[in-house]
Amino acid sequence: MSTDLNATGLGATDLSTTELGTTDLSPTDLNATGLGTTDLGTTDLGTTDLGATDLGATDLGATDLGATDLGATASARVPRPEQRATDPAAAEGPAVDVARASDRGARIAAVAIALVWHVAIGLPALLGAWPTLAAPTVVAAGWLAACAIGGYAAHRLLHGLLPPALPLAAALLVVDAAVFAAAGREQLFAAANWAWTGLAWFFVVVLWSRRIRWMIVLLAGHAVIALAALVGDGATAPADLTRYAMYVYGTSSLPVAVFTGAAVIATLARERADTATATFAVRAERDAAERAWADRRARLALVGGAAEQVLAELADGRADPTDPLVQRRCVLAATRLRRLIAESDDVPDPLLHELRAAADLAERNGLPIELIAIGTPPPLPVEIRRRLADPLAAALADATGWARLTVVANPQEVVISLVTPDVDGPAAVDAPADPVGEQVEHVLERDGEIRWTQTRWRRP
Amino acid sequence: MASAMSGEAPIGVSIVDDHPVVIDGVRAWLTTEPRLRVLATGDDPDLVLRAAPEADVILLDLRLHGRMMLDKLAELSAAGRRVVVYSEHTDPATMLAVLDAGATAFLAKHEGREHCVATVLAAASDRPYVPPALAGAMVGDPRPDRPALSDKEREALLLWFQSMSKASVARRMQISEHTVKQYVDRARIKYTRAGRPAATKAALLARAIEDGLVRPEEIGIYRSQASYDRPTP
User: Fold this and answer.
1) Is the same domain home to A105 and A213?
2) CA distance A408 to chain B (A)
3) How confident is the model at residue A193 (pLDDT cuts 50, 70, 90)?
4) CB pairs below 8 Å between A and B: how many?
5) Which candidate from B66, B90, B139 shows the least CB-CB separation from A408?
């Protein structure tokens, strides 16, 4: 018979109208701690609608709550990885952290190539060919300017920032043109014209993380400047033009390859990190759901056992249905079952979680309590949540007889209400100290019939 | 269909449920009200209907033998049968689906005798009755195309759902109990717009206009639906 236990049977016989004592008759110690120990509230994973319609009370055997496949539904709503930022350094999140780590290696490599080339190859050639340059001071000034630009860009890159691409690229082109003009025909193709070979690496540095097309544009500008220098110096013989083509090809291909490679690696790293984040999220949500499910199952076993015991005693004639104590046990068992059935969320919302914990506590003291939640509360700051839930928890502690706790929530508003019979007792019903606190309204009323505590949050 | 409230004629009620204990319990509740008479009971809506075609109100358990009876409900409602659905399935989505399908009222099984009798009496005269559980579902309706309720209607529904005491709601809103009921009932009448048209919805609406609960000009939007709804002869 245990599986035939249903809340309707208990409800239909209307046992709830009897006078309620205050003795704790709870035959089993209702476990209120299961959810409490695993603070699911802090994972903030959102909730999945479990489609609660099938947890029918009539079907609620001691085993049937497990029939819904929480694991499968948990993956239905997974927080998507954050929108990918253009600048990985400016965004937040674990995916971006991974991407940033792998990007940093590439940044160091690019900066090292540019500066080492500039100092180890450009500088000796410049100094060695000093007398033969057309305007050596201009070439040297260009070298220093490139050094400064590259140094600034490298500083930004290594501190996780992106250099301002447009001004630096423009400055580099100016340096490029000046050096080409000042090199003179004799040194045009020589290493002393350091801009030919070394400057493309600076392009890589200043354009870091930008689109490849800007790299192409910059290299094209570089090629045009070089061609203009050739024409200006009259080096237009076929041999010169061939050399020119070779130089353009040779000096562009490697930086382009490095630039593209870095971009591809960064993208792959980001994608991998996104996947990892999504997987973690699914796993965390599933774990939380499984914990909630296991906990619910455990409580069902307890509650079901208590109900079974009452029913068995009634059936055997050991318990008298007219006995107020027996009636109260029935009411308690029915209320608990109904409350379990009403829990339709697989990862409890933090606010509902707190309220349920308070309800469980009151129930352990033998108070039949109905908890109905409609809608899902939006994510709320802890302070707001506390102001919403605390007055209810306090009122619940004073409640006698029965209690009805309701939550109506939508993204704009959350209203929580506790109604209990208004019996004479300690007039602990102090008017709220701060009835309209910041964003949370707290109303308390007793009218001889009911005690009514209500808190209400409205989106400002 | 016999007129429900004419003179002394009792109101005929049929009960459809697959649990004999529930049928007995509900029958016991209804017999406390002299105006009500249980005409037929059973676990098959068609058989019960055949046994007592003259029943004014059908109390229908939403879940019979493990199946949700929403389609059957829509069929009965379209045919003008006043169906009061009662169920332990009190999740808001189910309750709203029941209203959409054309049920005259929804009652949660645990809501007890008073609500049950009041709901059946109201249903028999095509008047709305909103028990607290249904009020909760309406006030929390998340659907984008939900009926637009006024602030007062919404507040009355919310407080009624929370407190289950119209007297307390009246005190809180500083209006009369009668006005509280009007706000709640008007909200319910607005729900005759939702979902497919059904003869029962048209009947609720017509009676609401007759009673002055809503004015025809307030609900110009409903009228076309009401005329469309009228059962074809």
Assistant:
1) yes
2) 6
3) confident
4) 99
5) B139
